[in-house]
Amino acid sequence: MGRKLNLFIRSFRGELSSEEKSLLDKLLEDKGTAAEYEMYRNIWDQAIEKGKSSRPDSGKSWRLLHSRMGQKEAGRRIYRRIFYAVAASAAAAVIAICVLVRWPDNHHACSEQLLSEAAADVWDVAPSDKIVVKTSAGKYYSVESGQAEITLEEDGCISINSVLMAGESVTGGYNRIKVPRGKMANLQLPDGSSVFLNSLSEITFPSEFSDDERMVYLSGEAYFTVAKDARRPFTTFSDRMNVTVLGTEFNFSASDESSVVTLVSGNVKVDTDMSESCILNPSQQVALQNGKLTAVKTVDVQPVICWKYRIMQCDNQNISDVFDRLSVAFDKDFICADTLDDIFISGKLDLNKSLDVILETISFAAPVTFIDTEEGIVVKRVK
Fold first, then answer.
1. By the 8 A CB rule, do 248 and 263 touch?
2. Are 77 and 101 spatial neighbours (Cβ–Cβ below 8 Å)?
3. Can you list the alpha helix ranges (DSSP code H) found in the chain?
4. CA 312 to CA 306: how far, in whole Å?
5. Mean pLDDT across the stretch 240-245?
6. What is the mean pLDDT of residues 29-50?
7. What DSSP designation does 309 have?
8. How far apart (Å, rounded) are the C-alpha atoms in residues 232 and 209?
């Protein structure tokens, strides 16, 4: 049912390939499937119509609700897929779905109030160049330093750089951390797990884990060191890929373009929203590209995880891509005045050094020069 529902949702979004359209047409030849499709189409249309007047939230409101609802019942999973897909179009649509769909009585139904709160939960602060922490009590804190040590205490309160933040936590509430470019953050969870967040990343996590599961939501890149707990699997959600472990270390990069999981130790199960799954062993990597899992491959994990130590390893990498990564690491724009498509570099760059030193190193290895302007660093080709 999961794969069929995913096909329905992609059809509603207009995202089907020609091959998928043919598959859907074949499925709709069955009267039962056709009726099912029309039911979901009706739910989708009504929810989108109701959500047009509300601000979109790029599905982030659903992410909070997603963790709250759990991952157990197959019946709930169907409705979660509709919730998630529509929430990506308009936050108020989540509330509309709540009215349209009746939850099975034997499941833990989420109230309309919870749905409303989740749908309305957005960042109420202007974009910042500082690390921003939003607590489950709705309080905001910003961090001036380039790296923050953030700890979720056992009582649900938050401490930042060893300073306990004022205010109590909200039971059943969620905390969020947003890391801008040029910054990093290390999150310590009360179960003993830690999450090291790269620049341009965001994580959502509950004020307390339940007795039978541990769940967080990630957008961006993070390195996870998960404490072993056989009773409570640890699941990291992203928009299209989920990673479930009992205790291990892995790197997870989740973006709109692609998602990549690289396992350092232990083993993990990877699931996608198209019902694909695989198991990874140490030094293995899998990616989600064009909606499908790639073949599992063995990799050298050090180039993948060295960002933790502010090291960038380049293996015959196009220099424009290197500047993109430096832009994120140093919060500095690069403007390429000339075509650089044929220039590739290899080696390690120590991002703990100043940007001037790094650019000087690059200029020795590649025929480029740099001019620092108010708009950013202009890159010119040396002819």
1. yes
2. no
3. 2-13, 18-27, 31-51, 60-69, 74-87, 91-100, 112-120, 302-305, 319-330, 355-365
4. 7
5. 88
6. 73
7. G
8. 9
Alpha-carbon distance 49 to 212, whole Å? Answer: 37
Contact 134, 140 (CB under 8 A): yes
pLDDT over 50 (residue 281): yes
Cα separation, 262 vs 275, whole angstroms: 20
First to last CA, the chain: 60
Work out the angle between the directed axes of helices 2-13 and 31-51 (0-180°, nearest 10): 50
Which burial class, exposed, middle or buried, applies to 306 when counting CB atoms under 10 A from its CB (0-12, 13-18, 19+)?
A: middle
Burial (0-12, 13-18, 19+ Cβ within 10 Å), 373? exposed
The phi, psi pair for 24, rounded to 5°, reads -65, -45
Distance CA 320, CA 53 (A): 41
Q: Is the pLDDT of residue 168 over 60?
A: yes
Burial 36-74 (b: 16+ CB within 10 A, else e): bbeebeebbebbbebbeebebbebbbbbbbbbbbbbebe
* pTM: predicted TM-score of the whole model, two decimal places: 0.69
Nearest to 315 by CA among 298, 323, 297, 303: 303
Are residues 326 and 358 in contact, defined by beta-carbon separation less than 8 angstroms? yes
Q: Where do the H-state alpha helices sit in 241-295?
A: none
Q: Which two tokens stand for residue 329?
A: 């690491």
User: Span 121-148, mean pLDDT?
Assistant: 79
